[in-house]
Amino acid sequence: MINQLKEAVQKIYDQFDASHDFQHIERVLQNAESILETEPKADPEIVRIAVLLHDVSDKKYTDSKENEETLLNSLNLSANQKQHIKEIIESVSFNGGNEVAAKSIEAKIVRDADRLDAIGAVGIARTFAYGGAKGRKLYDDNEEVRFEMSEDDYRSKSTASVTHFYEKLLLLKNLMTTEKGKEMAEKRHTFMVGFLEQLKAEREGRA
């Protein structure tokens, strides 16, 4: 079932830009597998399915839940399992700090696995890939960083890519919910901070 689902979702993710393509899903799966090794009470199948489906109806690319509903309904799962997966997917998104609580261990694993791919070296690459796809500035020193915003504000304003680090990515380390996720986030966060310091130094002619 997992292999069949991989084939189906890849066709969807191949239509997205490089920040949310199928390679992103493969990395999140890898992160989830690492966390699963330390969370024996979690259901691995539910985690893997939720990872595969978590971006097929991403609000950045579609206003419809059709992809998620169609694929979920194609799986041989109980109604409770399908509802559980929907709740996991709903809890993954940051939403400008207006996130839905991750109540189950499976939801915590999927959320952490996804957020780990948003930070570190890959997170940096993804941020500028998405910014480039949307025609955003690399940086804007006159742009005010927002620490409180609605989901609509978060999604509607096309901020510069560097601003996104301060509005979301640098916050994620402290929002990890599993011990393994917290451990993995430390090095990636430190790398991001170093990158931003170097970028600032180069922009100011100090490096």
From TrEMBL:
HD/PDEase domain mapped to chain residues: 17-128
Annotated InterPro entries: HD/PDEase_dom, HD_domain
Top-rank taxon, per record: Bacteria
CDD domains membership: HDc
One Pfam family here: HD
SUPFAM superfamilies: HD-domain/PDEase-like
Signal peptide: none
PANTHER family, per database record: HD_PDEASE DOMAIN-CONTAINING PROTEIN, SUPERFAMILY HYDROLASE, PUTATIVE (AFU_ORTHOLOGUE AFUA_1G03035)-RELATED
Protein name, as recorded: HD/PDEase domain-containing protein
